[in-house]
Write a structure and sequence with these properties.
The protein contains six helices and ten strands; from the N terminus they run βαββαβααββαβαβββ. It is an alpha/beta fold and 207 residues long. It has a single domain, classed as Alpha-Beta Complex (DHBP synthase). The chain has a ten-stranded mixed beta sheet with strand order 1-8-2-3-7-4-6-5-9-10, sandwiched between helices. The longest helix has 12 residues.
Amino acid sequence: MSQFFRIHPETPQVRLVRQAVGILNAGGVIAYPTDSAYALGCHIGDKQALQKIRQVRRLDADHHFSLVCRDLSDLGVYAKVSNTAYRMLKAATPGAYTFVLPATREVPRRLVDRRRKTIGLRVPDNEICRALLSELGEPIMSSTLILPDESYPMTDPLDIRDELEHQVDLVIDGGFCGMETTTVVDLEGDVPLVLREGMGAIEPFVS
């Protein structure tokens, strides 16, 4: 049965944040709030935890996970960022965006798009995320919490606990989240390409 932590969305309790990170470091899968929707997350290097998320969401091997990062310094470690892309990232982060960028060798191969050698990264505007990432010291491997045969993410942490209490190791109650996913922007080329319109405004990336 999963643990259930109520973490304050504006002033996260340090004790609970440390316990949550301990669960991640021990190979656990957590359900946690972001600035767009609830997500499933695990340690970046844990292959078994990644497979557990695939099983919960019934994802195939071609599904692309994102790295949820603390700030732009993390993006620079895990992605190759041009000067033009950096300026766009600086203006749009933190925020409800996922950016597709060329991956560096720091990214585990199983997370990289095998054809394009890219990775999705995001910097959420959410205090619980910030606290988790600061304590963890590295990105969280993440996927939006959309259950099989559903079109929208789960929004209520109590419903998440009821549905997934035997499939994940921790549910973090950070309040209700929205049903909208992130806006996905491809910054691999010279011109940004909006791949999916979501919560983040697309105007900064269209001419």
